[in-house]
Amino acid sequence: MNNISQAIPFLGSRNPKAALITLVVLVLTAPLFAGLFGNTWVRILDFALLYILLAIGLNLVVGFAGLLDLGYIAFYAVGAYTWAFLASPHFGLHLPFYVVLPVGAAFAALAGIALGFPTLRLRGDYLAIVTLGFGEIIRIFMNNLTHPVNITNGPQGIDQIDGMTIPLVGLELNRGLQVTDDFKISSLFLYYYVFLAFVVLAVILVKRLQVSRIGRAWAAIRDDELAAKAIGINTRNLKLLAFAMGATFGGVAGGLFGAFQGFVSPESFTLMESIAILTMIVFGGMGNLAGVIVGALALSFLPEVLRHIALPIQQALFGKVYLDPEVLRMLLLSLAMILMMLMKPAGLIPAQSRYSRADLLGDKEARHDQAA
Amino acid sequence: MIKLLEARGIGKRFGGLRALTEVSLTINKGEVYGLIGPNGAGKTTFFNVLTGAYTPEDGEFVFNGSELPLGKPDRIVNRGIARTFQNIRLFREMTALENVMAGHFIRTKTGLLGVLLQTRHTREEEKLTTERAYELLKYVGIERHARTLSRNLSYGDQRRLEIARALATEPRLLALDEPAAGMNATETSQLRTLIETIRSDGTTVLLIEHDVKLVMGLCDRVAVLDFGKKIAEDVPAEVQRNPAVIEAYLGGAHHAAH
Description:
Chain A is mainly α. Chain A has helices spanning 2-7, 9-12, 16-36, 39-64, 73-86, 97-116, 124-144, 187-210, 213-223, 225-230, 235-261, 271-284, 289-318, 325-343, 357-361, 364-371; strands at residues 87-88, 93-94, 165-166, 171-172, 177-180, 183-185. Chain B has helices at residues 43-50, 73-79, 96-103, 112-117, 120-140, 155-167, 185-200, 212-218, 236-241, 243-250, 253-257, and strands spanning 3-14, 17-28, 32-36, 58-63, 66-67, 81-83, 173-177, 204-208, 221-226, 229-234. In chain B, strands 6-7-8-3-9-10 form a 6-stranded mixed sheet, sandwiched between helices. In chain B, α3 (96-103) packs across α5 (120-140), α3 runs parallel beside α6 (155-167) and α5 (120-140) packs across α6 (155-167).
C-alpha cells in the first residue's frame, strides 16, 4: 500500500483503498482525456508509458544494484531492431509478437551480460564511462552494419515494421478496432492499453524482485560491495543478473517501440536518450518504484506540453521560432535536474522505507511503528 | 579437542612488504581464540586472507576437515566462516532487519524464476528469513531497532548488528575484527556477554582485539602476531608472561629499565 499512498499523497494517507481506485480509474481513462486535445496527446501518452518501462528497467540497474549505466538506450535499440529484423519486409520475416518480443528481450539480456562482464570491477564514474561507450558502440553498429551484408540498413533505418497483432482475436493494433460503422478505436488507444499492461506487469515483477533475496543482495552490493562479499554474496553473478534483468526490460520496451513506431533508425538511440531516462529516475527518486514512474511521466510529458506551448508563443511573439523544441527539451531536463539537486537531492519521492515488511510478517507492532 | 581451523604456513606479501610470514595456528571447536599484536602486526591481513578478501602466496587453511578455497569469499562463507569488520561495514541504506536478512542470502535457495513467479516455496523461504532475522536481532539485543536504517543506529548497536548479520550466514567460525573498538565500558561488558553466549551456543569465535582485559578474560587461547610472524600461542595467563610478547608490545625500552 505504501507506493499507492505515495502516488496520491492526500488521499493515500487517509484512505489507501480509495486512492487505489482513483488511481486505476485515472490510468484507465487517461487516453480519453488526452484524446480531447487531439491524437498527438494520446501518442505522447503512449510514449510516456514506454519511458516508464525504460525507467523501471534502468532503475533496476542503477537504483537497486547501484551500477551507473549511461548506455541503457542500447538495450532499447537491441529490442527495437530485433523486432524490425523479425517482423518487417527487410528480411521478409513476419513473426508474431509472442515470438519476437521474447527473442528481443533475450538478445537484450545477452547484450546486458556482454556489457556486464568487462565492467565487473568498475564502479561509479568508471563504469559510467564504459557503459556510455557501449551505448555509442551499439548505435554506431546500427549505423554501419550494411556491408558486406545489409543487416541494419544504416542511417536510413528499417521501415514498414509490422505492428502488434493480438492472437486468438486477431486484433491488429495498427488498424484500430472498428466497433460499429462510424465508431472506431484508433490504434493509439489500443497501444496505450497494451503498453499499460506491460507497465503493470513490469511493476509487479520489479516489486517482487525488490523484496526478494535477490533484491536484498543487489542493495547490499550497492551499499558496500566488500561487505556483500563477506556475507557470501557472489557479486559477479548478481551484478550480471542486474545488467541482464535491466536490459530485458529495455529490450521489451524497444520491441514495443518498433511495433508502435513502424520505423527504427539509429538516431532514436542516442546518448541523449540514455541521459533522459537516467534523469527521469534521478528526478523521481532513484530506487523508489513510485518515484521512478512519476519521474518518467513528468519528464516525458512536461517537455511536450512546453513544446506545444512554446512553439505558438514564439511564433506569436517573434514571428519565428528561435528555440528548437529538441533544444528546449534538453534545456528543461537540465533545469529540472539542477532544481532537483538543489531542493530535493533524493528525488521527488525518495527511496525511504522501501520494503513493507510489516505486511509480510503480520506484525501489528511493527506496522504501528511505521505509521508513527 | 577437535580442530576446527588449521592455518599452515600462511604467507602474504604486498609488494616488498611481508605482511604475514609462515603463520601457523590451530583453532579448536568451541573455543574463543584471540589474535593480538601491536598495530601493523598483520592481524587484519590474516583475517582478510582467511575470509578470502586476499589470496595468500604461501600456505593453506584446513577448515572442518578439508582445505579452504583461497580468495573466494562467497565459497568460504558457504563453508561456515563469517566475519565482521574493524571499521563497521553495514548496508547503510537498509534497515537493521534487512541487513540481517541479507546475511541469510547464502543459506537460501530461491532463484530468479521463483522470485518472479512468487511460488509458495519463495514466500515460505522469505517468511522464514524474516523470522530468523528477527530472532537474531533479539539475540544481539537490538530487535526494537529492526526498522531503523542501519546508518541511523548508535555505534554500539551497529557493532551488534554487524555480528547479527554475520551470524545470519550460520557460521561455524565467527571472526570478529576489533568488536570492542570505540565502545565504552558498559558496551564492552555487554559485548563480552554476547560473545560468551555465542560460544556457549556452539559457534567458535576468532577475536582480534586491542582491549587486553577483554581478550584475557574472554579467550581460551591467544596467539600473538608481531611483524607478520606468530611469536606466541598459549592460554592468556602464559602469553601475558611471555618475554617475547612483552618485548613486542613494550619494545626494548622495557628491558633497559630493568
